[in-house]
């Protein structure tokens, strides 16, 4: 079985102490830092941008996984790459030139991910999958932390896993939204290997992070 990576979403961290928070999740066994960017336009909420990314970058050696929920997106890619993103994921719904956007992310030296909203079918990947490093299946409608896992997406995770395996390439399959110790095993069984979790990582404060992360990763 494939190794399971945990990517805490700092959307649920204490924004007044973000440097401490990314250090704490690193010490607690997190694999990546998931950085949610929302523009109040593509999604009905506003979060954090490249200035905040630049500020936390010196506080962690973990890869920073930037999830851009913004449209249009292309103009902002350089700023996130320069601020220290290792990976950048963009929504297939966010613009008409997703393939060009993915190429640009790779030209900037970052790993490229494409994200599917809950209402978007897996077949949107047909002409993208050969050029991406990760596929993200949203298991909530993006915009807010703390929502419930949408179980209909398990079928999509299974379909995307089949598509990835057919390529023969190493492509991560990330799930984002409503992941906790109960839903993590469902996502893993359906084929996911990277779990994003905000609420379920940060609940209980810093002393709880290691236990929270271990509970989602499951038996090693
Ligand atoms: C949803 C974001 C997620 C979210 C996850 O819009 O992309 O990364 O913060 O939060 P939880 O784990 O609380 O569902
Ligand atoms: Zn996210």
UniProtKB/TrEMBL annotation:
Alphabetized InterPro entries for the sequence: Aldolase_TIM, Ribul_P_3_epim, Ribul_P_3_epim-like, RibuloseP-bd_barrel
Task: Could you list this entry's UniProt keywords, alphabetically sorted.
Answer: Carbohydrate metabolism, Isomerase, Metal-binding
- Does the keyword Lyase feature in the UniProt annotation? no
Cofactor binding, note field: Binds 1 divalent metal cation per subunit.
Per UniProt, what is one GO molecular function of this protein? D-ribulose-phosphate 3-epimerase activity
Positions that bind substrate: 9, 67, 143-146, 176-178
Q: Which Gene3D superfamilies match?
A: Aldolase class I
What cofactor does this chain's UniProt record say it requires? a divalent metal cation; Mn(2+); Zn(2+); Co(2+)
Keyword field contains Isomerase = yes
Q: Which residues form the active site?
A: 36 (proton acceptor), 176 (proton donor)
EC number(s): the record gives 5.1.3.1
Q: Where does a divalent metal cation bind?
A: 34, 36, 67, 176
What pathway is this protein said to act in by its record? Carbohydrate degradation
The protein's job, in short, is: Catalyzes the reversible epimerization of D-ribulose 5-phosphate to D-xylulose 5-phosphate.
Q: Which family does the entry's similarity section mention?
A: Belongs to the ribulose-phosphate 3-epimerase family.
Q: What is this protein called?
A: Ribulose-phosphate 3-epimerase
**Name of the gene encoding the protein in the UniProt record:** rpe
């Amino acid at each position: 079985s494939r190794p399971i990576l945990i990517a805490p979403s700092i959307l649920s961290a204490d924004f007044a102490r973000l440097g401490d928070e990314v250090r704490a999740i690193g010490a607690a066994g997190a694999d990546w830092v998931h950085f949610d960017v929302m523009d109040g336009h593509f999604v009905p909420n506003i979060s954090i941008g490249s200035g905040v990314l630049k500020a936390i970058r010196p506080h962690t050696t973990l890869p920073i996984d930037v999830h851009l929920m913004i449209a249009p997106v292309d103009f902002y890619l350089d700023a996130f790459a320069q601020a220290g993103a290792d990976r950048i994921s963009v929504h297939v719904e966010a613009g008409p030139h997703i393939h060009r956007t993915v190429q640009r992310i790779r030209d900037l030296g970052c790993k490229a991910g494409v994200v599917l909203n809950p209402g978007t079918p897996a077949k949107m990947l047909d002409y993208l999958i050969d050029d991406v490093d990760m596929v993200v299946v949203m298991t909530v409608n993006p915009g807010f932390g703390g929502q419930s896992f949408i179980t209909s997406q398990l079928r999509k995770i299974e379909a995307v896993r089949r598509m990835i395996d057919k390529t023969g390439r190493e492509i991560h399959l990330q799930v984002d939204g409503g992941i906790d110790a109960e839903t993590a095993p469902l996502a893993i069984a359906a084929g996911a290997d990277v779990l994003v979790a905000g609420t379920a990582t940060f609940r209980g404060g810093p002393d709880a992070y290691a236990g929270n992360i271990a509970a989602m990763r499951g038996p090693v």
